[in-house]
Amino acid sequence: MLTKLQSMEILENFSLKKYNTFGVDASAAYFSTFNSSEQLNELLNQVDQKMHSTFILGGGSNLLFTQDVNGLVLKNEIKGIQVEKEDENFYYLKAGAGENWHQFVLYCVNNNMAGVENLSLIPGNIGAGPMQNIGAYGVEFKDVFYELEAFHLKEKKIVRFNLEDCSFGYRESVFKTRYKNQFAIITVTFKLLKQPRFNTSYGAIEQELERMNVQEPSIGAISQAVINIRRSKLPDPAEIGNAGSFFKNPEVPTATFSALQQNFKGIVGYALPNTQVKLAAGWMIEQCGWKGYRKGDAGCHAKQALVLVNYGAASGKEIYDLSEEILKSVQSKFGVTLEREVNIV
Ligand SMILES: Cc1cc2nc3c(=O)[nH]c(=O)nc-3n(C[C@H](O)[C@H](O)[C@H](O)COP(=O)(O)OP(=O)(O)OC[C@H]3O[C@@H](n4cnc5c(N)ncnc54)[C@H](O)[C@@H]3O)c2cc1C
């Protein structure tokens, strides 16, 4: 059924299956899209009284719908990329939150704007980047972030956030904690280098550049190397439903890591500057025997234990229940509590 509200269409009982990379068949009581903050405001004015909740959707690549959404799902489709200003060292590039992240990375690479090349091929849209401070291959969103504009869903006003305001951490920001579900991110301005600083030390980038026969690194070559590595390692949601790493890599004090090393030979951890050690959650999950496990259509990927998958008809609840079993077994074997990276809805 279709309800027409002024120029905005609100669809009822709308299937979200194509709007989440897990391919989970949940539905939204009400669904619409917006391509400007004015449209968003108009939608909120129309529905505020009768809706219980508003959920802002991007590309659906970092969430798990465990039930139908009994409220309004609004898909952000704000587009546009433009240079706001530049100085001797940087371009300040402003982008609409509904722009596809990887297309944005390619735009930067093609225009010699450096800093995001290591973040190539991460699925989803720009607006979700600050939510969890996306990161890969030694670079995080915060490293290229300048400021953003977000629309306060209740107060109906635009608020600006600078780097400090966002309190970025490892897959964290104020938008995931203090301001959860309070803002729609509208635009993000990035600070991109005119002179690239190559970051090739992480993962297999150097080996891949060698394999590609690259003599002189460039941001284009690094982007391509990252794309190649990711394609070879990560399951493609177009082929098998998933949302990337389901759990975060937990951080523990160095002393805890030393104790774990005594009991578990080969446990994988990376020292952090703050006397903490980041444990490889995938290794622990694998040690608990989950890698390749399948129950119905919910499973733990055969090559990447950190990635939970939907082989076709799994419900969000079944995938969530599997994650709960995994969490409990890691807790019981290692005494370490995993935290979900994926947003549970
Ligand atoms: C194969 C695969 C690989 C991945 N690899 C990585 C990786 O290497 N590194 C990494 O960090 N992540 C990775 N991810 C996770 C995911 O791609 C990112 O978290 C991405 O930023 C999510 O974007 P999205 O638009 O799909 O967000 P969605 O899934 O639509 O939303 C995620 C959360 O952000 C909120 N949100 C989205 N847009 C807005 C907005 N405009 N305003 C306010 N809130 C908003 C939603 O409400 C939700 O809570 C991977 C996912 C997959 C499927």
Features:
345 residues; five-stranded mixed beta sheet; five-stranded antiparallel beta sheet; 25% helix; binds flavin-adenine dinucleotide; globular; alpha+beta
* Overall mean confidence score, pLDDT: 94
Distance between the termini: 24 Å
Number of strands: 21
What helical percentage do the residues reach? 25-40%
What molecules are bound to this protein? flavin-adenine dinucleotide
H-E string: EEEHEEEEEHHEEEEHEHHEEHEEHEEEHE
Structural class: alpha+beta
Tell me about the largest β-sheet: 5 strands, mixed
Q: In terms of per-residue confidence, which ranges show pLDDT below 50 for 5 or more consecutive residues? A: 1-5
Beta-strand fraction estimate: 25-35%
* CA radius of gyration: 21 Å
Number of helices: 9
Shape: globular
Give the strand line-up of the largest sheet: 1-2-3-6-4
